[in-house]
Amino acid sequence: MNTLTETTDAIMPDPSLMEKAGNIIRSGGLVAFPTETVYGLGGDALNPSSSQKIYAAKGRPSDNPLIVHIADLDALPLLSDDIPDTLYMLAEVFWPGPLTMIIKKSRSVPKATTGGLDTVAVRMPDHNTALSFIRAAGGYIAAPSANASGRPSPTLASHVYEDLSGKIDMIIDGGEVGIGVESTIVDLTEKTPVILRPGYITSEMLERVLGKVDTDVTLIEGTDKRPPKAPGMKYRHYAPKAQMMLIEGDTGKVIEMMNKEAAAAAENGLKCGILCTDEIKDSIKADLVLSVGSRNDEASIARSLYRVLREFDSAGIDMIYSESFPDKGFGQAVMNRLSKAAGFNIKKIQ
Ligand code: AMP
Ligand code: MG
């Protein structure tokens, strides 16, 4: 299959391109599109064969459900006969935006889209191109991140091309995404809502609207043996090809250890990469030292994270040592992705 890449202004998407992309979806094809979080791989959420094609293109296990993207609240009643008030309360504050909500699904939503579950994940992205595309496609786009399964999520159209060219019909290139990590997922089917995946919308922000919110325990400890409630969280994910270790501790000691490990890697003929911040970049010597931005700017760290992990892969790095970050607020989402990329290989130094 020849994958067409079409560029558009992200804020003022070209209507004829939206129509072309919408027609591909209506006839059962796949289109990757930008959102404010990461690029998504879209298909018709109400067509089981489209969802099957998404799993095949990504090499994604079919028990890992997709998120249904909508552009208008009017689209909701078809997806669920049992929409909780909490959804509307959160939608009023956070939609369009990087928040995915899990509710009971109706019969209109095929199980092929929900990985066999009786619940459905719904989100309204805060991105003009995404919204126009969803409307042009009929209002219901099933989309996971547009990466090959197991690779870091795409924050640029070129990342999508790298992973999926030849496997999908079209890529809409709307430039670099704004947030850079996937949406927060909150399960509204429990008595107390539960965060299944941390993201830009933090538990504090959700609690301001809902009162108490829980966090799935399997997110906090990589060692927890219970299966996570968001099936996707159990897979090795967000991962570079290299081995990776996070180093936590006093900055001076972190720098010292990074330099020591880089020197040891060189002696063993291994290529060593360092993922760090602007503040310490110049103090480190290794094959490839990449900064994700300033330590004081969480947003830039999140936006650069996956691009930098992909750069280590392109450079053929064998071992990555990474700085770690405060596990609070939006930092929790960054640390969640980093810890998973490192397979929870975290070294604490005193
Ligand atoms: P992705 O968009 O690639 O991040 O994948 C969607 C994420 O949403 C995966 O981690 C899924 O496990 C999660 N998800 C989607 N639908 C549901 C659902 N009904 N219940 C729990 N998690 C879900
Ligand atoms: Mg994904």
Radius of gyration: 20 Å
Series of H and E elements: EHEEHEHHEEHEHEEEHEHEHEHEHEHE
Structural class of the helix and strand makeup? alpha/beta
- Topology, number of strands: 16
Q: Rough shape?
A: globular
Strand content: 15-25%
Report the mean per-residue pLDDT as an integer. 94
CATH architecture classification name of the largest domain: Alpha-Beta Complex
Task: Supply the CATH superfamily name of the largest domain.
Answer: DHBP synthase
Q: Main sheet?
A: 11 strands, mixed
The domain count comes to: 2
Write down the CATH class of the largest domain.
Alpha Beta
How would you sum up this structure, described in words?
It is built from twelve helices and 16 strands. The protein has an eleven-stranded mixed beta sheet with strand order 1-8-2-3-7-4-6-5-9-10-11, with helices on both faces. A five-stranded parallel beta sheet has the order 14-13-15-12-16, with helices on both faces. It has helices at residues 15-26, 48-58, 76-79, 85-94, 128-136, 157-164, 203-210, 217-220, 251-267, 278-281, 298-314, 331-341; strands at 4-7, 31-33, 40-44, 67-69, 99-104, 119-123, 141-143, 170-173, 184-187, 194-197, 214-215, 243-248, 272-276, 288-291, 319-323, 346-348. Helix 11 packs parallel to helix 12. It folds into two domains: 4-215, DHBP synthase (Alpha-Beta Complex), CATH 3.90.870.10; 243-348, Rossmann fold (3-Layer(aba) Sandwich). Helix content is 33%, strand content 19%. Bound molecules: adenosine monophosphate and magnesium ion. Adenosine monophosphate (AMP) binds next to strand 6. Residues 64-65, 67, 102, 114, 117, 119-121, 144-145, 182, 185, 196, 229-233 line the site of adenosine monophosphate.
